[in-house]
Structures are given as structure tokens and as C-alpha cells.
Specification:
By secondary structure, chain A is mostly helical. Chain A has 13 helices and no strands. By secondary structure, chain B is mainly alpha-helical. Chain B is globular. Chain B starts with a helix and ends in a 7-residue tail after the last helix. The chains are: A mainly alpha, B mainly alpha. Chains A and B meet through helix 7, helix 8, helix 11, helix 12 and helix 13 of A and helix 1, helix 6, helix 7, helix 9 and helix 12 of B.
């Protein structure tokens, strides 16, 4: 047998990479790169991040500069995207808004993954009474209408947090408090599905022979969870996180439309679009106020969704 | 099966208790929610005496104070609210001055019909879509459909809704559709079919807004489960014994893929009841979503509490219904 393996025919093939073992990460990346929309999504997202965050030093100063003489101007060489009702340059508001929207998406996803992963892991690993208790809690939150929870959280927390922030001496306390509660609300509601999925997978992983073997060699619960279970969950966590980011950005735009998003002077794509919607009226159509933020929002969501979708395909066992 | 249903119903009790507790906590911690409602009481020009009296009646109704006007402690408030809810006494809205149950009776049918129609449209497109994309996996149709449905999913509904409203229901551009509400003003002169036609004419734009983003997820799920079933042994057997391709696909693969659909449908049932706040808001439709939204903004405490509770109960019941349907559709699944 040993002789057969050493034959000169097999080696070159292995070197060409056909038979060479590939790590799961490598395989996933290869599949991702073969997916054209996903690559486009990554490029688009990279561009967005570069432009929105690269211009941050300028936009952070100019986003709230009012010039009432130049109110509601359509796009021109001076103001590439036009100006809003207070004469503020829409381009700088758009760029800063994009940066904040992306941050909201990423932070909400992080909160959702953090809570969902912890609850799911504990529930699935420990099982028994604790599992039943945690899953009942998830059921409770699932049963209550999501929008109501977010609204109530907002109503009950914004003023408290902004008082606290103002007491520390932070500028824009109201706005920051609004963003924090928004993150808490969106992230705090999005972890439920995550927790259920992780719990189910953990329960099936715990019964795998290799986990038993690890336990037999004397590994403690923390070692088993961190070294044996968690690495197997990374796929679903990545997919779920990638799909939560666009959902959170979209949720922010909904809430802004309802007047429950980030408070006014701070721009996000959601509240720019929402205030643009209110600017639609039959007499003066200020198309630029709604078009730019919505185009930005749509393109970013498109990139994120393509990426998330491709990631799901790349990690999905079924379509392999 | 009966014991299973009874056990599930009993298991709902702790979940429901948790829900009420959660609701109570969030609502009571919201500053102003328990007091601000008073300013909406019916009469505007009232003597101070009458105002005070009304405030007191309201506070008693909300179990904030007892018969003698003394404040009640928080835990006791919770228990009293729970007790009166269990006895079937739902609250009375402060803003509308009507029982919450009446409000829900008015709005639930509105939301339910629109969402049911929207869901039917989504399924009518997504099921053939999922089937075809699975059959033509990796081909132009598959990729094109996937791209289009995901692109539609990425469009924010506030943009689509307000643009449709601004261009298709606007005398300045195309005055094709009505811009608000569900009925024309002269409905009482209409025959039944005219009335129905008028209704459908009014819901076209809202339905479009509810539908367009729903294709991506559902089609993808159906495609996935059909692809999974296509690789099963029984498909090979069916083909080997010479069944025509269409029979294999429709009678064997498709029917088995429908199982997955039951779960998905069940998960979307609660959304059917709560409605879409955004679409109802854009098109001025008085449904459940708008009721929940406006009463939260107006601090209408009884409506918020009872609405959320009823939705919670309906959600739990719909999950139970899914499990029962699943059992009926697939006898292999047992719950013992």
C-alpha cells in the first residue's frame, strides 16, 4: 500500500491542487469568490466603506452647517447632491449618514450575535431546566410584536440615557442616546432566531463522538465549548451575522420613517430618506432629497444581501 | 394527539405569564405612559373638578389607585391587571374612548384580508419560482431570478411606497390609483360587485408594497428543499421504475418539499395579524399596525397592553397550529 501512494503519478496531481486537502475556510472562500454577485457586493461594500469613512474628517464638521440662503437647491457643481430645507449640503450629510448607518448595522449584528450565541450555547450545552427556562424566555419575546417592543424600549429609555450622557458631558447626548437605544432595540430583538439555531446545533454537536472523546480525556465544559463546539458553529454565525446587518439598517429606516429613529441633527440614510419622503408634495418636487439617500440605502443593502446570500450558499451543506 | 395538544396548551401558561410580566414591566417603566393618557379624555372644556374626577376613574381602571384613591403598589397592580384580564375584562382605550376589543374587531379584518391577499400573491409567485429555479439550477433562469428577487428584497419599502404614491396616485403625474384608505366615499350607493371592485382598486398599491420583498426568502427556501429532495433515493427509484419526469417532480419531490413550507408559513402567521406599520402608515389604512403605533405614541396604555397580549396569544396558537398541521401532513412526525 505504501508503495502505491508513493508512485510518481499521484504527486503532480496533488501539487496541482486537485487532491490537495483544503481547509473548510479555504473552500468557503473559493466558493465565495466564484460567485459573481458576491464579489460585486464585496467590491461595492468596500467602496462604500472607503468613501463614507474616508471623508469622515470633513463631513463631521460640515454636516450641520446651515445656510438658509441656499435652502432646497437642486444638485449643482457647488452642492453635488443639492441642499436640504435648512441649506445644509446633502452630500456631506449623505456620506456621514452612510457611515452611521453601516455602524448601526454592524453593532446591532454584534449585539444579536453576542446574546444569541451565548444563550444558544448555554441552552444547548447545559440542557434540562435551564434550557427550558431560556427557551421560554425566547418564546415570550417572539410572541410580542417586534415593533411594539422597539417603540416601548425607546419611549422608556431614551430620556434616561440622554440625561446620563449629558451628565458625563458628551455632546449630542440626545442623538447618541437615540442611537444606543436603537441598537439595543434592534439587536435585542434579532438575537432570538440566532439563539434557537445555535441551541439546536449545539445539542446535536454535544452528542458527537469527538465531544465525548474530549470529555473522556478530561476536558472541562469551557474547553469543550470553546475548542470543540464553537469552531463548528462559525459557519451559521457568519451567515446569520451577515444577514442581520442589512436587516438592522432597514429597520433603522423604518423606525426613522415612524419618527422613532435617530434624532434629527445626526444624519443616517434612514432618517435622510424618511425626511425626503415627507418632502414629496405635488407643488415642489425635491427629488434629490429622497433619491440620493434611498439609492445609497438600496445599493448598500443590495451589496450586503448578495454577500450574505452567497455566504449562506458557500456554507450550506445542501447545495454542495 | 389530544394529550399532546393539551400538554402544549398547558405549556403556554408560563409563556403567557412571562409575556404579561414583560409587558407590564416595560409599560410601567416608560415615563409618562401611565399619566400622559389623561389629557386625551373626551371633554376638552371641563372644570378642574370634572377633570380630576375623570383622571381618578381612569387611574382606578388602570389599577393605579384603589377605591379610596390610595396608590397601589406595583406588584399588586400587576396582579389586579392579570386578574381582570383573565376574567375577560379588556381595557378601554383612553384616546378613542372605546373598548379595546371593539377597536381590534374593527381593525383585525382589514389587516387580515390585505395580508392574506399579499401572502397568496407571494406564494403564487414563489412556489413556481422555487420549482423552476431548482430545475434550472445554475442556469440563466436560476441566476436571473435569484438576482432579481434579492434586488427587490433590498429596496426599502418607504422608498417604494412613497414613490408609488407620488407617481401613480398623484394628479400631477398618473392619477391611476387612489392615494389613501380602502374605500371610495360613496360606497353606500354601490352594488356588491362594484363595492368589491372598488376595494380591490384601492388595495393594489398597498399589496404591491407588501409583496415585492417577499419573493427572495420563500423562493430560496423552496428551491433548497426541492434540490435536497431531488437527491433522495426515492427519486431515483421513481425514475428507475419509469415514471414520467413530471410525475416524479410534482407527485414525489414537490409534495415532500411542501413540508418545509408549512413551517415557513407558520412562522409568518403572526406577521399576518400584526400587519405592516409602514405600509398602513403610508397608505393611511386603519389596521392593527397603525393602531399599535398610534396608541404607543399617544401613551394609550390599555390598548398597548391588551393589543400586545392578544397578538402574543395568537402567535402562540399559530405555532401550535403549525405543529398539528405538520403532524397531519407527515404521519412520520410524532410528538410523544
Amino acid at each position: 500500500m505504501g508503495m502505491v501512494r508513493m508512485t510518481s503519478i499521484e504527486l503532480p496531481i496533488a501539487h496541482r491542487g486537485i487532491l490537495a486537502p483544503r481547509s473548510p475556510l479555504r473552500m468557503t472562500l473559493d466558493r465565495l469568490m466564484a460567485n459573481r454577485p458576491a464579489v460585486l457586493g464585496m467590491i461595492g461594500l468596500g467602496l462604500f466603506v472607503l468613501v463614507c469613512y474616508g471623508t469622515l474628517p470633513w463631513t463631521i464638521h460640515s454636516y450641520n452647517q446651515q445656510n438658509l440662503n441656499a435652502a432646497l437647491q437642486s444638485p449643482s457643481w457647488q452642492h453635488w447632491m443639492g441642499t436640504d430645507a435648512l441649506g445644509r449640503d446633502l452630500l456631506s450629510r449623505f456620506l456621514l449618514g452612510g457611515a452611521i448607518s453601516l455602524l448601526i448595522g454592524i453593532f446591532s449584528a454584534m449585539i444579536a450575535v453576542g446574546i444569541g450565541l451565548t444563550v444558544g450555547l448555554i441552552s444547548g450545552y447545559v440542557g434540562g431546566r435551564l434550557d427550558a427556562l431560556l427557551m421560554r424566555a425566547v418564546d415570550v419575546l417572539y410572541g410580542l410584536p417586534y415593533i411594539l417592543l422597539v417603540i416601548l424600549l425607546r419611549v422608556s429609555l431614551v430620556n434616561r440615557i440622554s440625561h446620563y450622557l449629558a451628565a458625563i458631558g458628551l455632546p449630542q447626548a440626545q442623538g447618541l442616546a437615540g442611537i444606543m437605544v436603537l441598537l439595543l432595540g434592534i439587536g435585542g430583538v434579532s438575537w432570538l432566531t440566532m439563539a434557537r439555531v445555535i441551541r439546536g446545533q449545539t445539542m446535536s454537536l454535544v452528542n458527537q463522538p469527538y465531544v465525548e472523546a474530549a470529555r473522556a480525556t478530561g476536558a472541562g465544559p469551557s474547553r469543550i465549548i470553546l475548542h470543540h463546539i464553537l469552531p463548528n458553529l462559525i459557519g451559521s454565525v457568519a451567515v446569520y451575522a451577515a444577514l442581520t446587518v442589512p436587516n438592522a439598517i432597514l429597520a433603522e429606516s423604518f423606525l426613522s420613517f415612524l419618527g422613532l429613529g435617530v434624532p434629527p441633527p445626526i444624519p443616517t440614510w434612514g432618517n435622510l430618506a424618511a425626511s425626503g419622503v415627507q418632502a414629496i408634495n405635488p407643488i415642489h418636487t425635491q427629488w434629490w432629497l429622497i433619491t440620493w439617500p434611498c439609492v445609497g440605502l438600496t445599493l448598500a443593502l443590495l451589496c450586503l444581501n448578495f454577500l450574505g446570500d452567497a455566504l449562506r450558499d458557500a456554507l450550506d451543506v445542501r447545495t454542495r | 394527539m389530544t394529550t399532546y395538544i393539551i400538554r402544549r396548551l398547558l405549556l403556554m401558561i408560563p409563556t403567557l405569564l412571562g409575556m404579561t410580566f414583560m409587558l407590564f414591566a416595560v409599560v410601567r417603566f416608560a415615563p409618562g405612559l401611565t399619566t400622559a393618557g389623561g389629557q386625551y379624555s373626551a371633554g376638552v372644556m371641563q372644570s378642574r373638578q370634572a377633570q380630576k374626577q375623570e383622571q381618578e376613574i381612569m387611574e382606578r381602571r388602570l389599577h393605579l389607585v384603589d377605591k379610596n384613591g390610595r396608590p397601589i403598589s406595583l406588584p399588586m397592580q400587576y396582579i389586579l391587571w392579570l386578574k381582570s384580564t383573565c376574567e375577560g375584562h379588556l381595557g378601554t382605550s383612553i384616546v378613542y374612548q372605546e373598548p379595546v376589543l371593539t377597536l381590534i374587531e374593527q381593525r383585525l379584518p382589514v389587516t387580515l384580508t390585505i395580508n392574506a391577499i399579499a401572502m397568496a400573491v407571494i406564494y403564487l409567485v414563489s412556489i413556481p419560482g422555487g420549482l423552476l429555479t431548482a430545475l434550472y439550477q445554475g442556469r440563466l433562469l436560476d441566476r436571473g431570478y435569484g438576482f432579481m428577487s434579492l434586488a427587490l428584497y433590498s429596496l426599502p419599502v418607504i422608498w417604494v411606497g412613497s414613490t408609488l404614491l407620488g407617481f401613480l396616485a398623484n394628479p400631477q403625474y398618473f392619477n391611476w390609483f387612489p392615494s389613501a384608505g380602502l374605500h371610495a366615499t360613496n360606497t353606500e350607493n354601490m352594488t356588491y360587485f362594484r363595492y368589491l371592485g372598488d376595494y380591490f382598486y384601492h388595495i393594489v398599491l398597498p399589496i404591491v408594497c407588501l409583496v415585492y420583498s417577499g419573493f427572495a426568502f420563500l423562493s430560496k427556501q423552496i428551491r433548497g428543499s426541492i434540490l435536497e429532495n431531488l437527491q433522495q433515493d426515492y427519486v431515483r427509484t421513481a425514475r428507475a421504475k419509469g415514471l414520467p419526469k413530471s410525475t416524479v417532480l410534482l407527485r414525489h419531490v414537490f409534495r415532500n418539499s411542501l413540508l418545509n413550507l408549512i413551517t415557513l408559513t407558520g412562522m409568518s402567521l403572526p406577521g399576518l395579524l400584526s400587519g405592516s406599520v409602514i405600509v398602513e402608515q403610508i397608505f393611511s389604512i386603519n389596521g392593527m399596525g397603525r393602531l399599535a403605533y398610534s396608541s404607543t405614541l399617544a401613551s394609550d396604555l390599555p390598548v398597548i397592553q391588551d393589543l400586545a397580549l392578544i397578538m402574543g396569544v395568537l402567535t402562540l396558537l399559530s405555532y401550535l397550529a403549525v405543529d398539528i398541521c405538520y403532524h397531519i401532513a407527515d404521519p412520520r412526525v410524532t410528538y410523544d
